[in-house]
Amino acid sequence: MTKRKQIVAGNWKMNMDYEQGRDLTKAVIDGLQPSDALVILGTPFIHLRNVASIIKDISNLKLAAQNCHQEESGAYTGEVSASMLKSCGVEYVILGHSERREYFGEKDELIAKKIDAVLGQGMEPIYCCGEKLDVRESGKQNELVAEQVKTALFHLSAEDLQKVVIAYEPVWAIGTGKTASPAQAQEMHAHIRSLIRDQYGAEIADSITILYGGSVKPGNAKELFANPDVDGGLIGGASLKAADFNAIVDSF
């Protein structure tokens, strides 16, 4: 099987003022142990340039933005383009997070355009997908996630798809303290990989990194990451505490 990247990505969301973000970045660096895992810090826009300068000499520590606009430039007050992110040293962009879907009405047709914009600038999208609680309780989670993945990603060439990191985040487990069981996480990750296998073939499917997100903590990370199709995590609340975040990285 193709060796896949193991990734722990932190999503700070709308937290940390400028000084707090600087201090958190330095604390993460101070606590990092040697690891084969790639570590990504997903920060608000105000931190991007400063964090990029702090981490520039650390080979396994990368920078992500939390969103971008789908257009290259124009009269879109308050928005940030992929090329602007690129100029700040960003290498990854989180797209399709459930909070963007819920609070800003983003649909996969729009997210697909954002993915194209990010890839066009030589950066890598972290594409988020996942179901709400009512969908899980109705047993239709596989159908929903399949529709999300197909709409957002299946227009891509095999070459471009291999540059995408997928993050499965059951919405009912984000910030709620609830976590999908290791078996539930593995089942959905295997389902996502099977969708890619059917469309692009086994070699491509086996090369795609799929992360789990949803109340990942130091206490459950190792068990989650031990699943064969779970390649790491997209970490929310625990990424705001350097000790917790580094402990999750150490779970590998």
Describe this structure in words.
There is one protein chain. With about 250 residues, the protein is of the alpha/beta class. About 45% of the residues lie in helices and about 15% in strands. The chain has 12 helices and 8 strands. It has helices at about 20-30, 50-55, 80-85, 100-105, 110-120, 135-140, 140-155, 160, 180-200, 200-205, 220-225, 240-250, and strands at about 5-10, 40-45, 60-65, 90-95, 125-130, 165-170, 210, 230-235. Strands 7-6-5-4-3-2-1-8 form an 8-stranded parallel beta sheet. β3, α3 (about 80-85) and β4 (about 90-95) form a beta-alpha-beta unit. The model has no long low-confidence stretch (mean pLDDT about 95). This is Triosephosphate isomerase. Keywords: Cytoplasm, Gluconeogenesis, Glycolysis, Isomerase. It catalyses: D-glyceraldehyde 3-phosphate = dihydroxyacetone phosphate. GO terms for molecular function: triose-phosphate isomerase activity.
